[in-house]
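Exercise 3.2. Students should predict the tertiary structure of the chain below and write it as structure tokens, then compare their answer with the key that follows.

Predict this chain's 3D structure.
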Amino acid sequence: MAGATIKTVHAIFQSMEYGPAATCSTATAQAWLDNHSRSLGLFIDGKFVHPSDRQTRSLMDSKGGLVCSTVCATQADISYCVTSAIKGFEAWSGLSCYQRSQMLQRLASALGQHGRSFSELCDLCRVSCSSATLVRMLQYYSSWAQLRDTLIANWMPLGVVLVVVSDDCSLYSLMLKVLPALAMGNSVILVPGQSTAPAALLLAQLFVGARLPAGALSVLTGSDMSMAADVAQNASISYVTYSGSKEDGVKLCKATAGMGVPVSVTQNIGTTCPIIIFESADINSAVDDVLETAFKKNKEVHWVLCVQESVLDSVMARLRLRMAGLKCVALPSDGARVLVDTAVQDAQNKGAMLLQSCAVPSGTRYPPTVLCGAAPSSPCVVTPSPGPLLPLMTFRSNTEAVTLGNHSPHGQAACVWTEDLTLALETSKSLSVGSVWVNSHPLSDPCLPVSGHKDSGTCTDGGQEGLYQFLRPSSTCVLPRATPVALDYAKFGTDATPFIIPDETVGTVKSFAQFIAGKACKSECGASVVVRSQGGGSVLGYCPDGGQKDVRNAVEAAIKVQPGWMKKCPSARAQSIQSLAKGLEGKRQDIAKAISSQTGIPMEEAEVEVELSIARLRDWAAYCDKVHGGTLPVPQSGSGLSVPEALGVVGVVLPDKHPLLSMATLLGAALASGNAIIAVPSQEYPLPALAFIQVLLSSDLPAGLVNIITGRRDKLTKALANHSVIKAIWYWGNSEGCQYLQYTCTKPLKTLHLFCQTDKDGNHGSRDWTHASVLEEMWRNAVQWKSVWIPTA
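Answer key:
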């Protein structure tokens, strides 16, 4: 038709107006709060408790209005809660797996019925978590409750578990701790953050409707992290697990040091995660998901965008187009605005170019901003400020992309964008993170196991692997709790080397060497300590008194060979461990004599220990290619992979009991899973380990993969704890050493496996090193898990 104007599809969509936004009603949640007079008490013994004369803490909504107030628990409330939790554990663990599963399923049904109340309450408290997400989690863990005795045989619940989360932690992260603990038969005392407390109390009330035994789930609210440490002091607490910010996690670890209770940390607040876009990526989809991930979702982490140089212009053009309609983001406070302005100014001074959705307004709102050309050392990358800032860095090669992705001290997650599946899998394998999403935005599902890599945590959450933190092998005994001692952390392990006065034994006893970087050598300081027979009897020889410099040399050698050892195929690692067993078999008589002469046991018993050690190394060789992992039953379209990975360099302070068998067990666990090891022999019985060095000298293990440093236990423990490269420490020693490690190994976080050999009266603890269950337990302590999500649609 003459004069008619033909519009393109793009023009039509650009001219369309948005419909009116749906009004968000919170009437149901408000009614529930009004029913509690907007003053939520503690949840103890299956009911709400409103103690009088308690401090309260107010929770405000986004507009500054009062949502509710919560009670700050006191020591009397804590005692009452723990007593109830003990009874709750007896009742809950006494049920059959089927009965526990049915109760969790009933809770899922109740949550479906009251999903509106739950969702509205989450919106009021600004803790985004849909009821459908929690229903999925309940269904998943109810199945594991049903199958615990079938698929996880010979493991038992720990007892009373304390779950602690920081104020800014999500409800999803909270329930990812609570539900698996309950599914495995533990009772749970929950200490939520301020924003998650109302939703946690509502869920506890729904649990009562599902007929959960009174005391199986308790909720204590407080004013700060100190209350969690007060709860952990109770001798009936078996395990403490924390999720949230690094600062609060460190405070909790230091506050509980020396109490004899294991503490695990998951840092999921404030970490820095990379988004990597390769030239082979679908740029349009990648940019859309970058904006969705970095600016529109509830941000618990900070993202860094890494783009290949060849597609930088294309990515920039699409970012300008997509960002044009983005609205300003509200900042938490005026102080946050100052931090954002400072970070932007610093980035500009270092050559970064700003790409913003609109002009910068005054006040506590700030537009989504991309800092193009940010330097890896820039504060906006290393220590990002709160606010909608996305640093953008470029790379040229695939190797450089992995280097940028691993630049952060955190190792929580990463997104990888490429249409090349081989490149995607290789990059995912090389990134030191717990979760990798390929061509997709972050996906959370309880079946995905995630370990905190580097400084992001010390435990695994999700999947079957995440259940083991709430279980113990049935063959191990429950260790007694300890009382913290007055320990000067600065002076720990600094005692002067004892003098060795020359006497008539000079030249008649043997001088032993330690083993570093594949060589037998003396200590850097040149000092030695005396090796005596049992009970401080006759002098059997002298061994080096190792220290910090020796540990440093060993770590330098270990980090050179560990990546290559980890990449070796499992069958190659198995052959090397088999050769170690053969070498031990060839020197069985010499090592049996060393065991007998120092420990004082009969020669027949020493020969049995050598035989068990040979068999244990062969077991580990067979274990190398039996490592679990594979595809996961993710409900969305796509493939989820779980991959076990080595920790890196592991420090081991060996026990006194069964000095050879324990060393073979722990050494084999580290090697079979791809780790390097720095072992400190028993201070009381070092001779078997010193004799084992001759086996290592003739083995085909890479030089530096196994290091044995002799000397005083406390001095070497301090050196291991203060080396930033060592990822994990397995310690058998005294209570002071356990307390020192818990207090010190927080910067960076180290995975600790602690065992106090002696109690306050000096009595030795026991452990059955001959039991087969030690294999699976130590293997699970030697690996960390990574989940990879690859969508298919």
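Discussion points: The CA atoms of residues 596 and 605 lie 8 Å apart. Residues 759-764 have pLDDT under 50 and may be disordered.
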